[in-house]
Every structure is written in C-alpha cells, then in structure tokens.
Amino acid sequence: MKKLILAIILVIGGAAGGFWATTDDDIKALVSSLPTDANVLFWNTAQRDAAFRTLDRLPILAKSNIIESGDDVYALPKGTPIKIGTDVDAYMKAQRTAGLVIVHDGKIRYEKYGLGFSGDGKWTSFSVAKSFTSTLVGAAIKDGYIKSIEDKVSAYIPDLKGSAYDDVTIRQLLTMTSGVKWNEDYADPKSDVALFNQHKAKDGMDVTVSYMRTLPREAPAGSKWVYKTGETNLIGVLVSSATGKKLSEYLSEKVWVPFGMEQDATWLLGATGHEISGCCVQASVRDFARFGQFMLGGAAVKGKSILPDDWIAAATTKQASIGDPGKGYGFQWWTYDDGSYAAQGIFGQGIFIDPKRKLVIASNSNWPKATDDKVGQQREAFYRSVQAAIDAETANIVPPK
Q: Interhelix angle for 373-396 vs 88-95, to 10°?
C-alpha cells in the first residue's frame, strides 16, 4: 500500500512538471485507475483494463526484465480472411478481448483488437508464460545444463533439501504431480496463489523457494495432479540455477532473437528479483502467435530444433489426468485428445495450437473474473468453429488434374 501511495504522489508531482502533458493515453488510464490492492487478483475490471497493457511501464507497480528481440522478424503475411461460422464481434465483446490473431498455414487469416488496444501494444500473459518456462527446461536439457527431467529438483535448488520437494523430480514439477499441498483458489485472499508472492523471503533466498519449502505433502510424489503456479515459479528458479542466466536472457537467446519476434517483450520480477516464471510475460499478440508458430515448426531455428527430439511430443500430450474427459496436462501445456494443445492464463489469455490443421489462435482478454467456466467454454467453442471453418475450406479444395 505504501508503494501505491508513493506512486500517486510521484504522478501528481510529475504532472506539475509537465509530465502529464507528455504521457501517452495508456499510462494516463493506468494512473486514473491506479490499483489500491497490491494483488492483481483483487483489482476491478477498469484497473485491469488499464494495467494489463502497462504492467511493465511503471516500475513502482512492477519491475521487469527485457526479453530482447533481434533484427530479423519472422514474417506473418496476410492471408485470405477466414470465414468463421460465428459472430466474431459478439464473441470478442463477450470475452472482453483486447487482441485476436488467427494464423493458418503461416498466414494471418484474422486479426482484430478491442478495449482500445492495438497490434503495437503489449499485453500481459499470466499463465501462458508457464508454457514458455517449460520450453526453456527442454532447451536447457538440449544445451547440457540439465541432465534429465528425472533428476531431483533439489539437486538444482539446494534450499529445497529437507522440504516436501526433496524427493520431487523435474518431471513431476512439469506435470504438477508433486503431491505437495497447494491452494490455487483465485477468489480466496488466503489461498497459496494469493499469498506466496507477498511472502517475506528468508535472507538470501528466492521468495518462491522460501515459501514453497514450507508446504506439506498431501500425496506421494507422482500420484496426484493439482494445478500449482508456485511450482512453475520453482521451475524458473531451476532453469536460472542450471544455466546461470536470467530467464529473460535465456528466452531471448533461444527463441525471441533467433526465431524472429517482432518486439522486445518483458518479464515481471518477483520480490527477490527473479522472473515470475509462472506468469507475466508482456508481449504483442502477434508475437504470442509467433510462439505458436515456433512450436508448430518443431521449435526449430534455421532448421535445427532447440529442444530434444522427443520433447514436443511428450510436452504437448497428456501426461496427467485433470478429471476432464478429452483433456489433460502435459509439460505446462493443456492438452486435447485430438492432438491440439494450449497455453492458458487467467482472465482469458491463450495460445491455441492445432498441428493437424497448421493452426494457431492467440488471444488476450480481460474476463470479468480470473476463471469463468462460461466464458472458458465459449472460447473453446470458438476454437472448434475455427477448426470447422478450416475443415470446410479443405473439403472444398478441388485437387489438381
């Protein structure tokens, strides 16, 4: 709260010196709707609308590291507009969508923005970042920094020794089957997901590690799936520990520069200065779509994959049952039994990837609630309508004589 009050004072002071006149509309909107709660889970809709596009632009609200892009941009040429059997404008309004990009066979077939957002802006990803983080584990194995996902996590994060995570493997972190007790209730201010970023870290220890090492075990390791953002944050600490590099630096080195992302992105930092690896990459919607293209192409840069040969097949297929027919959980990817898979974040962020149809759907939104079954089901229905549109096009193609 003290930081937020200080932010207001600084803004008022800056305005007196001409700051306000030279500040862009996004920052003005953020200042006008400045959150009074430090936890994003409890901001109102107007505060989220303003902040989701500017989280990395007010350091007093959240500090970040830059994910640098390069000079050679991966081309996403415009294709023929796709004819979707649904009212896309009504869909985007119901989803409160800021950006929607549909890429099919390497071409943009649909692109539209809302909530005053544009293709030049960056929007926060929330748990979409989990899939980026898990991909960096594969890269670290390919680069020789990590021996195997069967290694114990505590071999890379010594501060976990003696905790419930001492006998947990990297694989079990990736699949969220550690058996360690965790509460991911976004509406509960006393849940682990609401409290762990506010935790006061033990001296010299990463804030996530400091919190997670106190959690009790509720099931044998590998026996029970429970969604845990804190465990993805541990994966990020593990990758940084193994590589000796910041996550933002490693993501830039392995993907953002060589694959050809259009813009620099940013990654928000936790209280002890480490990227919040279960959350919070800010990027353009087109660059989220490019990450989908990167996965579709076998994570290849100049014809050579940055991942082990069997990584994508394992990462994007069901490794753990989530109790929902037709779906599962891979290595920080949500999986579908038809072979498609998705990165998903609260408040409606997502990258849907369908290898069979060479399809990527990237979208950023601000749902009224962090999770909502109704709008979530509506989004999945939209994915199916796009798949159906592509199938209809394919069925109407006349083969060459």
A: 160
